[in-house]
Amino acid sequence: MTIIYAISGIAINHLNDWNPNYIITTKEVQTKENITKPELTKTAVKKILEENGEVKTYKKHYFPNDYTLKVFILGGTLTLDMDTGWGIIEKTKKRPVLGPMNYLHYNPVKWWTIFSDIFAGALVLLAFSGILIIKGKKGMKGRGAWLTTLGIIIPIIYLIIYYY
Q1: From CA 130, how far away is CA 24, in angstroms rounded?
Q2: pTM for this model (two decimals)
Q3: pLDDT tens across 23-33, in order?
Q4: Buried b (16+ CB within 10 A) or exposed e, 11-43
Q5: What is the dihedral of CA 97, 102, 107, 108, to 10 degrees?
């Protein structure tokens, strides 16, 4: 559990840099230019998808405006500019290991929250017993005092600079 929370915590800390739950792939596509709405029947849309290896994934399509075709495919979308014929296929797929770890980190159901609270309490107990268990130069009379002090001062400095 410590490993799950640690790894998913690191992933969650970097949400602005990447998506830890999904792998998002994009593929640029090009079809003929100046396609009109009447031309883009279900059959014509499937032909565009077939050119790009996605014909079996077709779900539905619509026109969000006069110059854009949006096609829903299994696991993603195709967005096509009808004037230029340029488009992009975007597909999402769940990350195999990290996705489930993040799911657990977000406490998905009540009983998991209770389990997580008990686990967090055990970690607090482990931390305090670890501080007190080592004696002498490596304990609270030596190195342990410095490490404990740093563990308190660093968060306080961060809070003073960024929170208050």
Answers
A1: 42
A2: 0.66
A3: 999 999 999 87
A4: beeeeeeeebbeeeeeeebebeeebeeeebeee
A5: -70
